[in-house]
Amino acid sequence: MKPITIRSVVRCDRGLVRKINEDAVGVLPEQGLVVLADGMGGHSAGEVASRLAVKSITRMIGGGRTESLAAAIAFANSVILQAVERDGSLKGMATTVVVGRFTEGLVEYAHVGDSRLYLWRGEQLRQLTRDHSLVQEMVDEGLYPSLNDALKAGVRNNLLTRGVGIGEELKVESCQLAPCAGDLYLFCSDGLSNMLSDRRIGKMLAGYNGALETVADQLLNAALRRGGQDNISIVLVAADQIVEEQSAGSADV
């Protein structure tokens, strides 16, 4: 599929508590590619892992290769593991990753960990990715009716069950959907989703009037006002240009 040039805006902030920013973001507009990674807390050199992941994936996809997003994430996994082999001080580093690729008539996405991709469509917010976390697994197994119930019961939400760089065996989840006019796609690290409820995020996206920067700033500032307890990364992509380019392309044929 032919890549579509995307219109996007990026925000990546250290937050108010962390001493360093372990998040990394890469956007290749002309390749329709978005990569967001969050160095996993509690692991050494998380900032190195996240940056290696973004660099590896953008290099593979941006180089014109047609590998799947899952293959690109697997490549990043191998790059991180090789870096650890070369430098023992990096042992234990890992990262989450969420990747999106916008092509003619299709949005592909893949992820590992709890960095998320949301879709705002028809006045409704939908979380496209599903967290690879202990609390999500407990909800999936029926131990709690919802994430909020599990969190209220004291289950920690920062225990991940998958990460890029943890081991050679890596399970990547991937999916695809067709874009529609008016869509907004929100890629974010848990520094945003842990600070703001889906309802709050949806209200802010509902106010979108064509100014991506305004909405991105509102999301970032709201997370900071709630405490900014983690690094906060946001990528907003509007589908208006995607759909317009597809229509123009069809008319030229």
Could you estimate the helical fraction of the residues in percent?
25-40%
The general outline is: globular
Query: From the helix content, strand content and strand pairing, which structural class follows?
Result: alpha+beta
Count the beta strands. 10
Can you walk me through this structure?
The chain is of the alpha+beta class. It has one domain: Phosphatase 2c, domain 1, CATH 3.60.40. Helices cover 35% and strands 25% of the residues. The strands form two sheets. It has a five-stranded antiparallel sheet with strand order 1-10-9-6-7. It has a five-stranded antiparallel sheet with strand order 2-3-4-5-8, with helices on one face. Strand 6 and strand 7 form a beta hairpin. Helix 1 crosses helix 2.
What keywords describe this structure?
single chain; 253 residues; alpha+beta; Phosphatase 2c, domain 1; five-stranded antiparallel beta sheet; 8 helices; globular; disordered C terminus
Give the structure's gist in a few sentences.
The protein has 253 residues and is an alpha+beta fold. It has 8 helices and 10 strands.
Secondary-structure topology with pairs:
Elements: E1 7-13, E2 23-28, E3 33-39, H1 46-62, H2 69-86, E4 95-103, E5 106-112, E6 116-121, E7 124-127, H3 134-140, H4 147-152, E8 173-177, E9 184-188, H5 190-193, H6 198-206, H7 212-225, E10 232-238, H8 239-252
Helix pairs in contact: 1-2
